[in-house]
């Protein structure tokens, strides 16, 4: 009964998020900034009610947010930002991103935002066992904590833990249209396509996010914290 309404409200929320993401809030005067902040608050309310499956309340909140943002546009406080037709936002591609996400940093956010620009983002967070295997140490945050952090990012539709023995299994379960690899991912797009085809998954597009946000990486952050702590203790 609610499938069509659910999809439309999600598209409506996505439209407002996209609009807000393009607004240069620092350029607004005090009155316009209050309207902008109120629109953001209604967006948050809409997302809250959407998660509770109260779609009509979510729709009312997001419609109010849209109206507030539209008033800024019509009064020329916001320029060069237009609404997308909802038909372009319904049933968006499903994009899978995977990683350890030990410390959430600007490099991660750039990756997730790029995936969000393509479609709905599903994140696979590595298990502690696999983290230790690849990194040679225990993670600073355990898998449950890392999952909770990633789930709170606005670009992420859903986050799950990976499989301890089969890295392809979450891809089979999620059924993405696109897999986006990060710049430091251990596997190449070509190798992953080969492995997916062996499992009969021939229609999944595999791409790589090449832009590295220096100097950000979880390993760099971990080493910097360790060095500072050691120097403090000494």
Main features:
alpha/beta; 9 helices; 234 residues; Substrate Binding Domain Of Dnak, Chain:A, Domain 2; 5-stranded parallel β-sheet; 2 domains; globular; Rossmann fold
How would you concisely characterize the structure shown here?
The protein has 234 residues and is α/β, with parallel strands linked by helices. It has helices at residues 3-22, 30-51, 55-74, 106-118, 128-135, 143-151, 169-174, 189-198, 218-233, and strands spanning 94-99, 120-125, 156-161, 178-181, 205-208. It is built from nine helices and five strands; from the N terminus they run H-H-H-E-H-E-H-H-E-H-E-H-E-H.
How would you describe this protein?
The chain folds into two domains: 3-85, AF1782-like (Substrate Binding Domain Of Dnak, Chain:A, Domain 2), CATH 1.20.1270; 92-222, 3-Layer(aba) Sandwich (Rossmann fold), CATH 3.40.50.620. Helices cover 53% and strands 11% of the residues. It has nine helices and five strands. A five-stranded parallel β-sheet has the order 3-2-1-4-5. Helix 2 (30-51) runs antiparallel to helix 3 (55-74). The longest helix has 22 residues, at 30-51. It is globular, with a radius of gyration of 20 Å. The relative contact order is 0.11.
């Amino acid at each position: 009964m609610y499938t069509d309404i659910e999809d439309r409200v999600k598209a409506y929320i996505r439209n407002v998020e996209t609009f807000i993401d393009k607004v240069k809030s620092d350029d607004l005067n005090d009155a316009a900034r209050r309207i902008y902040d109120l629109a953001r608050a209604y967006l948050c309310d809409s997302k809250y009610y959407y998660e509770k499956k109260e779609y009509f309340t979510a729709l009312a909140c997001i419609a109010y947010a849209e109206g507030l943002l539209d008033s800024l546009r019509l009064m020329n406080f916001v320029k060069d930002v237009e609404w997308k037709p909802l038909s372009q936002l319904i049933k968006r591609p499903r994009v899978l991103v995977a990683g350890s996400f030990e410390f959430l940093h600007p490099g991660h956010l750039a990756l997730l935002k790029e995936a969000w620009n393509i479609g709905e983002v599903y994140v696979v967070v590595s298990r502690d066992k696999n983290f230790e295997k690849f990194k040679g140490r225990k993670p600073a945050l355990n898998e449950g904590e890392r999952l909770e952090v990633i789930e709170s990012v606005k670009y992420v539709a859903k986050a799950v833990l990976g499989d301890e023995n089969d890295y392809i299994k979450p891809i089979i379960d999620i059924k993405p249209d696109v897999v986006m690899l990060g710049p430091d991912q251990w596997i190449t797009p070509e190798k992953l396509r080969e492995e997916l085809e062996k499992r009969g998954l021939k229609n999944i597009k595999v791409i790589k996010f090449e832009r590295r946000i220096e100097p950000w990486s979880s390993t760099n952050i971990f080493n910097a914290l360790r060095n500072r702590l050691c120097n403090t203790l000494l």
